[in-house]
Design a protein that fits this description.
The protein is of the alpha/beta class and about 190 residues long. It is built from eight helices and seven strands, in the order αααβαβαβαβαβαββ.
Length: about 190
């Protein structure tokens, strides 16, 4: 296992990996991929749907700290929201993360028109992926990425999203065979 971060962050990630199934976290290799992508693309403004205990947000936040960016992350459940906030603080990235508690669809509907992002990560209610996509679309800049986890593990529930992004003229999309399956879409116009 490659160590990416300071010992405190690596210890937090290691502890969170032990509860991966309880909190529906992404795999470490998916975290490594997203971290590398954000840095390589020099993303600055990211949005995460489904904070959970902060595992994926740590990968996103660490990458954005290096690019000089910021993460806005949305979590519905108070318990997970509180755990994530503590994990972000312990890992030294709370200064680049804003956590919003609430229904993702409601929060997305209320985003200001000028709220622009260049990276979106979705790992929440699988049946709502298509709705999240439609609400994120006006905020994602051309050249921006939208990644969705659990595309293969929850294929039936995410199929409407896959059909929607694959048939949308403004996007190119590929499903990567990472654990659980990761959709990587890029807005081309």
């Amino acid at each position: 296992m490659t160590e990416y971060f300071d010992i405190t962050t690596e210890n937090i990630l290691s502890e969170l990996e032990k509860t991966q199934k309880n909190f529906w976290n992404i795999s470490r290799v998916t975290g490594e991929f997203i971290y590398t992508l954000i840095k390589a693309a020099n993303c600055k403004n990211a949005l995460e749907i489904g904070t959970s205990n902060g595992y994926s947000g740590i990968w996103l936040g660490k990458a954005l700290k290096e690019t000089g960016g910021h993460l806005t992350t949305i979590e519905f459940w108070e318990k997970r929201f509180s755990i994530a906030r503590e994990n972000f603080k312990t890992c030294g990235i709370n200064d680049v993360i804003s956590i919003i508690q609430g229904s993702a669809c409601d929060v997305l509907k209320d985003l200001p028109e000028d709220f622009k992002i260049d990276f979106a990560f979705i790992d929440a209610n699988k049946k709502e992926y298509i709705e999240y996509f439609n609400l994120i679309h006006p905020h994602l800049v051309p050249g921006g990425f939208i990644c969705c986890d659990n595309i293969l593990s929850h294929k039936e529930k995410t199929q409407s999203f896959i059909d929607g992004i694959n048939n949308h003229p403004d996007y190119e999309n590929v499903v990567l065979n990472l654990p659980a399956g990761l959709s990587l879409g890029r807005k081309i116009r």
